[in-house]
Specification:
Its cofactor is FAD. By secondary structure, the chain is α+β, with helices and mostly antiparallel strands. It has 22 helices and 16 strands. Helix 4 runs antiparallel to helix 8, helix 8 packs across helix 19 and helix 18 packs parallel to helix 20. The longest helix has 33 residues. The protein is elongated.
Length: 706
């Protein structure tokens, strides 16, 4: 996934990549590390010609009139190609100075003059101008004609300033990052112009770093994956080894998060809400500081010895990511700020374009009002009657709602305070019946399920067939009028409370394991079914073992073709449920914030809380971006797989932190310790995390099977 959300943006990104490739800019970066030079200065105006520095500036201020998101797309492309120079700094300075009518803005937008920012600007205290002079410390990408933009105290007034003066600049030896060689800079005869919109400036500086590092992270992922496909060891491509797949899947997850963080910050700046932009900026700071270096380091690991050479490009990208982490102050201050905002109730809010379905709002609003007016005990029936319970299902049970209409319905139900009941297993079992079942099956099951009269469970997993579901052994033998099912199912949630089950059984053992499987609907009251509760590590019994002993299933309870059940088990209706999720940070974080309400946290505890909130934030951003892509008819790609993988880690980490805060009081059962135990199932249920990583590596990244 890239930041780009339109074909025009993708064309622009490609033009940046083509320009960088034609000039072999990576070789210039490598040379500058040895020479301490600034080769980028010779072609900064060419970057300006591409529109990088003026794209986001409105036409009235002399810019191209594009969006901040357009700028982020170009900076991401620059990061992927490792285009050197103070790109983010010049973009940010050009934007704010053009809007306040500064004469220097024209040169910045054209790329005729760069802007630079002290390395400590985003993480340290402002420097103080004394007697017209100021020590700026290390300044990345310093050149003699650079415009300094810095947080300063001038005549007792703290703020961000555009600064010019006589410079005493000393190159720093052994530079880490060849894209922006640093100098120690002292200015005298300082002439400072206060920047009016300092918050917007900082937002854009962080956005520039985030977008650039999104490109870095994506590039090193691509390099690692391409290498893993062709590098052979022990007679096989190393990409076929699970250990390598796990690393590549982790890199994919980080890359998707970084892209989403940059897109989110660009969207927030474009929307013009300073409070929302601040949330997005802090979250992006935390994520970039942690994830960008991790991806670059893993790329070197995948590349092995070749990645450790100076001639390979991998170390140049690693150096860039490490420098970004330093410029962002390791994300430490941002974590603490984000923790404070989270405890204060600040949440990211998303506004979606539902113009295409606005003409249906009156009818949907009336239906929502009808549901809200019904007594509590009758609301589910009212939701089913108005077709708002599962609006994405086809008529006559739903509205065949596209993503935009689903979101409009959600908004109207929120308006009247109505919460849909969770259909649980029925939420994906019934769409299979709707798409592949018979008219009689639809008539028998769909309406009663919506009304709450039928509850479903799933008879899929077996003792020897968990993540490898196709290895199931439950057999179905043909008899007069139907089938006899014999076998054992396990980990079946709520089997003791369900009236019907969807069940996979092997109808032809002579064919490969993914074939010869049939999809059955099983009456849980049928003779021969023995349900035995399994006590979990929590002490409760939600799961069950289900033994099938010669259970008769009539032919009319077969869904789809005999021996064609594997495909049905892996698919649902194409028009799947679309939702933004609630306005909170997830039940785990909401419970944590309630637990610590009024409790003073130490510095390290606040930093950890900030990290947790950043993770929750990016989860919601991934959800929102997926919805935006669906609304525009774009495939969300890897988003759903990444969302599950990172969501599991996050949801397990939150109660662990909450339990740590309890100290010795955690020796007694509490909601935090209970959730810690319960959430261990998240990395097992629905496919273990390790198997899902393998699947992501193979299906999304194209690594070979082992």
């Amino acid at each position: 996934m890239s930041i780009a959300t339109s074909s025009d943006q993708r064309v622009v990104a490609d033009s940046v990549a083509d320009w960088a490739a034609a000039r072999s800019v990576v070789d210039l970066v490598r040379a500058d590390i040895d020479s301490g030079g600034a080769s980028w200065r010779d072609y900064l105006s060419q970057v300006g010609d591409l529109g990088v520095f003026m794209a986001g500036v409105d036409e009235e201020s002399g810019g191209a009139g594009g969006s901040v998101e357009d700028v982020a797309v170009m900076l991401e492309a620059c990061g992927a190609s490792l285009v050197p120079g103070p790109l983010a700094q010049t973009v940010a300075a050009a934007y704010v100075l053009a809007r306040q009518g500064s004469a220097v803005a024209e040169a910045l937008m054209a790329g005729d003059r760069p802007a630079v920012v002290p390395a400590s600007a985003l993480a340290g205290r402002p420097a103080v101008v004394v007697d017209g002079a100021v020590d700026l410390g290390p300044v990345p990408a310093w050149v003699d004609d650079a415009l300094v933009v810095a947080p300063l105290v001038v005549d007792g007034e703290a703020g961000w300033y555009a600064v010019e003066g006589a410079a005493d600049a000393t190159p720093m030896t052994g530079p880490l990052d060849g894209t922006a060689i640093p100098h120690r800079v002292r200015l005298s005869d300082v002439r400072a112009t206060r920047i009016d919109d300092a918050d917007r400036l900082v937002d854009l500086l962080v956005l520039g770093v985030a977008a650039y590092q999104s490109g870095v992270a994506r590039h090193v992922l691509d390099v690692a994956v391409d290498y893993a496909k062709v590098r052979t060891q022990f007679g096989a491509p190393i990409g076929s080894f699970q250990a390598v797949k796990q690393i590549c899947a982790d890199m994919l997850c980080r890359s998707e998060q970084l892209t989403a963080a940059a897109w989110d910050l660009a969207s927030a700046v474009d929307d013009g809400d300073a409070a929302q932009a601040r949330l997005s900026r802090l979250a992006a700071t935390v994520l970039v500081a942690d994830l960008a270096p991790a991806n670059a380091k893993d790329a070197v690991q995948i590349l092995g010895g070749i990645g450790f050479t100076f001639e390979h490009d991998a170390h140049l990208y690693l150096r860039s990511a490490l420098a970004a982490r330093m410029l962002l102050g390791q994300g430490s201050t941002a974590r603490v700020e984000l923790a404070g905002l989270g405890r204060g109730g600040s949440r990211r809010e998303f506004t979606l374009d539902l113009e295409s379905v606005q003409d249906r709002r009156p009818a949907i609003a009336a239906a929502a009002d009808e549901v809200a007016a019904a007594p509590e005990s009758e609301r589910r029936a009212a939701l089913a009657r108005t077709k708002l319970l599962a609006p994405h299902w086809p008529e006559p049970y739903g509205l065949g709602a596209d993503p935009a209409l689903q979101l409009l319905i959600d908004a109207e139900l929120d308006r009247v305070g109505v919460t849909r009941p969770d259909l649980v297993i029925a939420g994906w079992a019934l769409p299979t019946i709707l798409e592949h079942g018979t008219d009689e099956q639809r008539e028998k099951f769909v309406a009663p399920t919506l009304a709450g009269d039928i509850r479903w469970c799933q008879l899929f997993s077996e003792p020897e067939a968990g993540s490898d579901l196709a290895s199931l052994r439950t057999k179905a033998e043909r008899v007069d009028g139907g089938w006899r099912l014999t076998g054992q199912k396990i980990w079946t949630s709520e089997a003791h409370m369900s009236q019907w089950a969807v069940c996979l059984a092997r109808t032809d053992p002579s064919v490969p394991k993914h074939k010869g499987i049939t999809y059955f609907l099983v009456d849980m009251a049928a003779e021969g079914i023995d349900i035995r509760p399994l006590r979990e590590l929590t002490g409760r019994a939600m799961f069950n073992e289900v033994f099938l002993d010669d259970v008769f299933v009539p032919d009319e309870m077969v869904v789809g073709p005999v021996d064609g059940g594997w495909r049905l088990a892996r698919t649902t209706l194409a028009n799947e449920r679309v939702a933004m999720g609630g306005s909170g940070l997830g039940k785990e974080v909401d419970a944590l914030l309630k637990q610590i309400d009024g409790v003073e946290l130490g510095l390290e505890q606040s930093r950890e809380l900030g990290r947790i909130i950043a993770d929750a934030h990016i989860g919601r951003v991934l959800d929102a971006r997926s919805v935006v892509q669906r609304l525009s008819g774009t495939d969300p790609g890897a988003t759903s797989s990444v969302r599950k993988l990172i969501g599991v880690v996050h949801r397990q980490s939150v109660p662990e932190f909450a339990t740590d805060l309890l100290g010795v009081e955690g020796l007694s059962s509490s909601s935090a310790t209970e959730l810690l135990l319960l959430n261990r199932c998240l990395s097992i249920a629905g496919g273990t995390t390790q198997i899902l990583k393998n699947a992501a590596a193979e299906r999304i990244l194209g690594l070979p099977r082992g």
